[in-house]
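Hi again,

Forgot to attach this to my earlier email, sorry! This is the prediction with glycyl-adenosine-5'-phosphate bound. I've pasted everything inline since the attachment limit keeps bouncing my files.
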Amino acid sequence: MSAPNIETIVSLAKRRGFVFPSSEIYGGLGSAWDYGPLGVELCNNVKRAWWRWMVYERDDMEGLDSSIILNRSVWKYSGHEETFSDPLVDCRECNARLRADKLDIPPGAEDGDIGALIRDKGVKCPNCGSTNLTEPRPFNLMFRTQLGAASTEDDPAALAYLRPETAQGIFINFHLVQQTMRRKVPFGIAQIGKSFRNEVTPGNFIFRTREFEQMEMEYFVRPGEDEQAHQEWIDHCFNWYTSLGLSRDNLRLYEQPREELAHYAKRTVDIHYRFFPERAEEEKHWDELMGIANRTDFDLKAHSKNPVDAEGKRLNPDSTEDLSYFDEARKERYYPYVIEPAAGVNRSVLAFLMDAYSERTNDKGETRVILKLHPELAPIKVAVLPLAKNKPEIVGMARAIKRSLQPVVRAVYDDTGGIGKLYARQDEIGTPFCVTVDHQSLEDEAVTVRDRDTWEQERIKVADLQQHLQTRLLGK
Ligand code: GAP
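C-alpha cells for the complex follow:
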C-alpha cells in the first residue's frame, strides 16, 4: 500500500512534525514549507544516502559546493537569461495566471503553436471555465536580485540571479576540479544545494515550490561514449530509488519527446513517480521525480572563450578560460559530453513518504498508520520507552540505554503516554525499532525490541542491544 493522495501526507506531515506551512502565524506564504524536527532528519538522510551512493561508493566522483549567486554571465551563456521561461497566459475573466503548457489541451491537439491551439480549441481556464485567455508570453523563472548597497533596482551592472539549478556551478568549475584532483575523463562532479525558480503555478505541497533543493551530478565523458553512459545512469538512478524502498509499480521511465527537450539536451529520460494515484486517468497519475539528460558538450563549450561562429567571432567574449580537455592517452583535445542525473530532494522526500505510507488494524479494530520508511531514511532509528514512568529504576535504565545508543544511532526517549500510544506514535513516524524497558528488565538485564513492520517482539540482553540493532538496521 502507499498513500492514496498527497493530502494524506500533508496532514501526517503537519501532525507529526515533518513539514509545516511556512510563515503560518502571518497567514502563510504560498507554496513555501518549513521542515520540522522529523522533516529535517528525513531530508538529511535522503541527501546523505544520495551522497554516499553517488560519491563515496564510486571511484570516479568528486563533490562540490558552489555559490548560489554566480556572475551574471553564467546565466547569459548557459542560455537561461534568454530561454529559461514558461509560457504564461492570463485569464481575462478571473485574472488567474496560468502556464499555457499545463492547460487541458484536448487530445490529438498536441502539435503546433500553443497560442493557436488555445484559441482554436476553446481551451478553458481551470479556475473559472472561461475561454477568454490572453496569448502566451514567456515569463523568465529566474529570481532577480541586486548586488551591493549602492545599486538601484534597474542597474544592469548590479543585476544578479539566484541560481535556478546547481548544474552551472559545476560546469564553471570543471577545470579546477579536474586539475586539482588530477581526474581523467570519464569522471563526475556531484553537488547538493538550494535552487530557486519563480514558478508560475507552484503547488501540490512540496512537489513544486519556488525554493527547493537539488541533488545533481554532471558526468563528463568522451564524445561518442555518451549514449552508453547515459543509459547506464538511467538504470543506476532507477535502482537507487528502488533500493531505498520505492515500489516499482509506482515508478516509470518517461522518454521526453523532441518538442519537450531543453535547448541543451540530445536526449532526456525522466523517472516518474505516481504522485497522483487518486486521479481517474492512469496517465495523469504520474509526474517527474528526476531527469537524466544528455547535455552534450553544450555547457562546456558555451562557457569557453575559444569557440567561434562562421565569421570567426568568439561566441563567448566574456570567458577567460577554455574548458576543453586534453586526453593524454589518445592525444586528442575535445569538449567532454555531459550526462546529468538531476533529482529534487523535496520531490524525493515526498515520494519516499507516499510510498512508505501504510495502514494496519490492531486487535481492537483500530486503524494505525505505519510509515514503512527504509531504515536508512527513517528520521529516528530507535525509540527507548519505559513501561512505567513512575518507577525511577525503569526510567533510569531506559534513559541510560538511550544515552548508550545515541553516539551510534539516532535514538529518542519517550515516556509521554501508555505503551500502546507510544508504539503507535513511533509507527506513524517510521521508527524501525522500539526498545521497551519493563519490570523484568531490572532483574534480567534484558529489554523488548519491537519491529515496526511486523509488530513482533523479542527479548534482547542490554549488553547485546547495540550490536543487535545495528545489524538489523543495516541488514533490513
Ligand atoms: N540541471 C537540470 C535541471 O535542473 P530540472 O528537470 O529542471 O533539471 C531537476 O530539475 C529536478 O529538480 C526535477 O526533476 C525536480 O525533482 C526538481 N525540481 C525542479 N523544479 C522544482 C520545483 N519548482 N520544486 C521542487 N522541485 C523541483
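The radius of gyration is 26 Å. The chain has a mean pLDDT of 95.

That should be everything now.

G.
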